[in-house]
């Protein structure tokens, strides 16, 4: 596999314009198509979903990742020894090129990572909600895409992509692209999605949501009936769609 443009930093903000507001984030090793570079800014589209934006040119390198971080987070060490000071921290979903493996660590160009925190890129998770549950307690961050800060659509995308389900980056396009509509009287089940204008949540079970939200300022569980009433009362309106991912019974 030939080297392609990828993210060099642990997390890179994908901005609406050079020096503009953050729309989303990209993680180390994620691929991009570079459209142009000017004045230290790169105009790119993200390989994972086609999201368009601008990031610092210094956040780019080239590489051919082979593995992803499948744990909530991990550390990179200068040596295969967890007692050495770590070089940096990486979120779930970051991608790395494994050069060699030892008994407990994998060597990468950036340093050594615990083998227990890695999965091959081609590996596929079975349950997107289980992936999203890795983010429990993560602080809410508008436009966030990591276990250091995430928003509602970032949490949904993390679960979907780990399960090889194509997923846009924002909740509006997610409502149109993901799953099939459920009748109002259909019982909800784990893995369903509830949408509001500007918000999305996983169904963890028939009575509970899992979502990144500004009410808790974190990824949290919340009773479905309470969340629906709360969101409506705060002025954000009713549920706009109930969806079931394809392949679910």
Automatic annotation (TrEMBL):
Domain of life of the source: Bacteria
Keyword entries, A-Z: Hydrolase, Protease, Thiol protease
Segments forming domain NlpC/P60: 122-246
InterPro entries registered for this protein in UniProt: NLP_P60_dom, Papain-like_cys_pep_sf, PG_Endopeptidase_C40, SH3_16
GO biological process, one term: proteolysis
One Pfam family it belongs to: SH3_16
Transmembrane segments: none
PROSITE patterns listed in its UniProt record: NLPC_P60 (PS51935)
MF terms (GO), sorted A to Z: cysteine-type peptidase activity
PANTHER family assigned: NLP_P60 DOMAIN-CONTAINING PROTEIN-RELATED, PEPTIDOGLYCAN DL-ENDOPEPTIDASE CWLO
Family: Belongs to the peptidase C40 family.
Protein name per the record: Cell wall-associated hydrolase, NlpC family
Lineage: Bacteria, Pseudomonadati, Pseudomonadota, Alphaproteobacteria, Rhodobacterales
